[in-house]
TrEMBL record:
This is BREX-2 system phosphatase PglZ. Residues 794-891 form the Alkaline phosphatase-like protein PglZ C-terminal domain. NCBIfam families: BREX_PglZ_2. SUPFAM superfamilies: Alkaline phosphatase-like. Residues 764-795 are annotated as: Disordered. Coiled coil: none annotated. It comes from the Bacteria.
Amino acid sequence: MTTVTATEPVIRARLKKAREKNYANGVLGLRAKATYDGSDFDYDGTPVTVAPCPSVLAIWEAIDGRDPNGWTVVLTSVDDDDLGDTVLAHLLDGRLITPDPWDALRSNFSATTIEPALYRTTNDRAIANGLLATLSADAYIPAPGGVLTRDHAMATLARDTLGIVKDVDVEIDTLAVLEWSRSSDVTERVTALNINGGPELSAAFYQWLAGRSGRLAAPVAALLPAGRISELVALGIVAGVFDGTESVALGKFLVRSGLSDLSPDSLQVWYQDTYGLVTNSLKSEQQQAVLSAAGTIISELGISEAATSSDLLPHGLEARLVSLSNAITAALPDPLPSEVDSRLVSEEALRDIENRWEHVQQHFLASTDRSAHAFGGAVRLARHLATGVAPTTGLAPLADRHLRTDSWVDSALVVARRGADQPVPAAALRALIDIALARRARHDRAFATALADAPTPSVQTIENVMRDTVIPIAKNSATLLLVIDALSVAAANDLVRSMQQHGWTEVSANNAKQRGVALAVLPTLTQRSRCSLLCGELREGTSDRERTGFLSLLRESGLEATGGVPDPIFHKKALDAVPSGAQLATDIRNAIADTDRQKLVAVVLNYVDDTLHHTDPGGTDWTLQTITHLAPLLAAAKNAGRTVVITSDHGHIIEYGTSAKVARANTYGQRAHGDLARVDPDREVVVRGPRVLTESQQVVLAVDETIRYEARNAGYHGGATPAEAIVPVVALVAGELFEGASRVVGTEPYWWHAGSLAATEIPPDVSTKKSRKPAQDSLGLFDDPAHSTTPASGLPGAVLRSKVFAEQMKRSSRIALREDQIQNLLQTLLATSAREITLAQAAAALGVETARAKGALMQAKPLLDVEGYEVLRVDRDVVRLDVEALKEQFGISE
């Protein structure tokens, strides 16, 4: 007969039965191996001494030496016949009791019966003993209905010993197993189960847990016995690189996973479940750890080529970027035609680029990858090059082109120039940037020529910004003027987008409904342009003169501060006087809050200009948090209900290691000089007139961005490029619009967003060798509605007049959109042959900022999507209209 091993849980269970028979102490004889690995303990306050007794003599010694007030537990395998009646008379019930670990489990779980599935094994007592040995005293939860089931026992083991979820109300399923497999102590817990629970319990538990793992049963069943369950997630990521076909790589993977075979569907299921965990449940650092572990497995197996198909691994992103790079390289004209303003990328090539870019963006790592981020700018440049540029002359049209198009090209160039890690993507970026720069250089030259030909320009000038824009706004609404030194129009594009995401709305104080710009004083240097801006007339001087001129202008305009308050203009010293624990200097905070006595407050921020000397403007994202003091200034303005006007004294260009110093005499900073005897007509321009603040009212300005006249910096200003000479004039409100204000919409060019295969802006007879066909007279996919000659459709009006639309409006009482906005949106969509527009175009049609366009479209959908039929569809940055569904759902026969 097999002799059992008595453990403390087994002994406790027998003592419990003795107590139920009203025994308070005594000698409990158990037929078991005369060995005991535990120590003496207390049972309900009564001391328990465990005595392994291999002989009758040892039993007598235990009886004679027992504590009469405690329990003595005798463990012996001596036959009853050898014990004799005298020994048995000292034992509880007068006999040796054969302990049953299942009785102990039944007792611990407060169960009356045990499900056969739990004990129907070859060595069932090993299962019971293993459970008793591994479960803690606090683990036992009464068995539901008094039946100890296999699920209840194993789930208790999973929670208590393995640490798979803690809450009894949380189901142990595939996700729970995946998350547990990533625990820092998972290997130690499995090892402890093997040692303490024994091989029989471990095998039974592995089988049970595999069954609870749903579609991952096979991998879990293979990895658990091998002690490699910690690799479950990493191997699942690797499983996604196989298409199910027999290959050497797949064979290596199966051997590594301990699997003899796994169907293609099972491989994909493993990957899908893992993908869900990684993308939805793990924190960023956890994701990186898992992907790194998967990458190590890829390297160990030597299957990097197979990994290029992965949606999660870096190998997959790198492959997609290479594919995109090849498409870009193939799309670019070689050689570059002389007409760089013609369409340089064909529609077909751009579609290919867009498709591959979409594939890149679908990769999990794309949103945080620096190389992918650079290609975000590159694809925008490709869209720009796929659009021809109409010939433009005159300073005002050229300044407007910079505002509407070229400043956005500059923004895209900044991003693209941040580069890629791998050689092929880096080469593609370089080629694309070079072509974009060739077109950009042509535009810079045209602007500089117009600047030289306009001594008294017809565009807004920086010395008139105060009188023409800022003061009129301040008379209608208390205003905070932020002069951000060296803020270019391109940098303002990024900054305004950031502000819109924090509740600010861009407005204009005229009917133009577009962002304003102004022309800097020449040369475009701080002491000339900023002084002229704040004084309201052409002047040159330091901050003291700026202050004097600004206060004089306030008195002249009737906006002078009253009541003995500090001067409402603040420079760097005042900004830096921030008390400990505060975010803003006290005088500045008080001035902004005092809207009754100080209608106009001006603050000068030098951060951008400082980056040109000390940091990297090309690697800077211009946001509220980037510019020192800006965020608390805007918060104070929002709290006070002030309108904010942002402008600058001049813009800037960025040094990319390509500039060369050119020797010139009588220099004005890095990009201007008075050496009229030495002028390079290909790279410089001579400008004369009253707005040239030099002694002779003439100056030579650099046009080519690769030349400078002094030591290398991170960036420069002073020259004649529009990036240096044109400054933004932006007005924003955080609440209701002030009187006379209108929203600024559609600031981005339509090629800025995906789906911008626009009709060319150039005459149809101008094309390039790389284009498959010249510009068409009819509008094509993703046309620019602004160029449409299609007559207005009567369909939008019919929709709005229909009974169905009236009912939709009643059901959607909280929708804030007006009927005219819906009509404009429908009309804009119907004006294109494909019934598709970009997000920027939709924003313009709805009269909202692009940053808020998706929110507005989500309000339009409940009005147009009748009974769940999708009439209006928004995919990323493309808006589509199903015209037939629109007619059918609104009962229109047109």
